[in-house]
Amino acid sequence: MRIAAALSSALLAATALAQVNTAPLVGVVVDPDGQPVAGAEVVVQRALGRGFRCLDLELYHSWKPLARTRTDARGRFGVQLPIGLALRVEVDHAPLARWYDEDVVPGDDLRIALQPPCSARGTLRFRDDGTPATGRVRAWNDRQIEVFAGRTDAQGTFAFGRLPKGRVQIEVIADAAMTPEWFAAGLTPEAPLQHTFDLERGVELRGVVVDDATGNAIAGARVGEGWAMRKSTLTDNKGEFVLPGHGDPGRPDLHCRADGYVEQRTDRPAKADPWTRARFALQRGVDFTGRVLDPSGRPHQGAYVAVVGMTPQTVPWLPARTAADGTFHCAGLPPLCEGMLLVRCEGMATLVYALPTAAAAGPAQVPDVRLQPARLVRGVLRDDRGAPVPHANVTLHGTNRDCEQLAALPVNWGVLRFYLAQRTARTDAHGEFAFGDVAPGSYEVALGDGNVDNRAVPIAVEVAAEGEIEPVELVKQR
User: Percent helix, strand and coil across the chain, each rounded to 5?
Assistant: First the structure.
């Protein structure tokens, strides 16, 4: 009995320690009549590319499962989660519409009212002769949350079901037709949304991508419209490409990217003749290589690393993941371009380091980067009467203290800091907020989403490697 009691006490103590930096995410799921829904599946995911201005769209849209549970007989659910995370919550209970939100934080108490399902279907076709066109279709709601995404079939038709009601914007990226303007519509359970997209053929843009120094063809280069390159194609072994359906008036800029080369942008000529030929002569860039080690000095696999710079035309964002030996390779920064190194890793502090400017293309070795344990900055937002303010944005401004250990901050840091020295969190149902990936350094906590909201006086926070960090209290004035 005494052994059992001792084990029980030890387990409680361990549990208490494990929950120091966690908070419960709880909620209730009800049907359209307000009755509890039992057995609904609840999935919680997190994203490493959220909470800051991330230009790596693949990272931004990548969600990692964090917890999975089901509602009980009263429709309730609860999961214990680390605080300081950006979360996506999905609730699935057929035949009702799926529910999802990408602006959830631990500490929230959710009331989720499932809705009757809506549906959307439609067809892509060429305007001139009515023949089917194929392509990708996606939609997002007024909160910029993706509602559906997929491809048409060979006949150019698409269909999506169990959608929530509300306004959506639908984007079509056709394989061989010009990208149309976004289509705004409303989803209702009374009748399916149905729309036919009559597409212009555009022009077939052909071209070649070569090495500027040697003239040799570059295979596997990607050429696409706009910086996001939603409509794009790859070069073949001869460096040649074909981009059918080119001519989106909203994206007059054409971009070309290839491993190890500086991204090149060219704008559609302002003339009446169709632009049917393009040539890209890419220059070799600076190739940064290095290693990421864990706090004990061992190589760390899977850390996200990016070299980020700025030119008059583009913001080079060169991502990589560390290999089993901790090495990374970020290639293609323009010579003489000032850059920063960004390192993000699950459970560790986010780090940024100024990089020495390379005068010429070629290899550049970065000294070993050692991960630092994450420190937690937390606080509460109150109004001038002392009441907590829920669901408000708070921003942490600053970087790790040793960000200049490799080089001085670049001249363009005043702009780059918007990408690399700002993290945004939302207050929970109790007005509390937290940043869970902070390294030792000097920071400022302010009201607002990036831009400082002057209705609250920013608070300076010193983060040391050890010791307690006093919670911050922001006061929002009316």
Answer: 5, 50, 45
Assigned token pair, 266: 């060219």
In a domain, 14, yes or no: no
Is the pLDDT at 449 greater than 80? The verdict is yes
Question: If we measure between CA atoms, which residue out of 377, 371, 326 comes closest to residue 348?
Answer: 371
pLDDT of residue 32: 97
Split into its structural domains, the chain has a count of: 5
Domain extent at residue 182: 118-199
7 falls within a domain: no
118-126 and 193-199: which strand pairing? parallel
Question: CB–CB of 288/330 below 8 Å?
Answer: yes
341: domain CATH number is 2.60.40.4130
pLDDT at 14 over 70: no
Residues 107 and 44 occupy one common structural domain: yes
Q: Which single residue is written with the structure tokens 């983060």?
A: 463
Does the pTM surpass 0.70? The reply is yes
* Residue 12 lies inside a defined structural domain of this protein: no
Span 382-431, pLDDT tens digits: 999 999 999 999 999 999 999 999 999 999 999 999 999 999 999 999 99
Strand segments, DSSP code E, in 180-238 are: 183-187, 193-199, 203-211, 222-225, 232-234
Contact 468, 448 (CB under 8 A): no
| Number of Cα atoms under 13 Å in the Cβ half of residue 467 | 7
* CATH number of residue 403's parent domain: 2.60.40.1120
The verdict on 278 and 290 lying in the same domain is no
For residue 331, tell me if it sits in a domain.
yes
Q: What single DSSP character describes residue 269? A: P
Point out which residues pair with 172 in neighbouring strands: 137
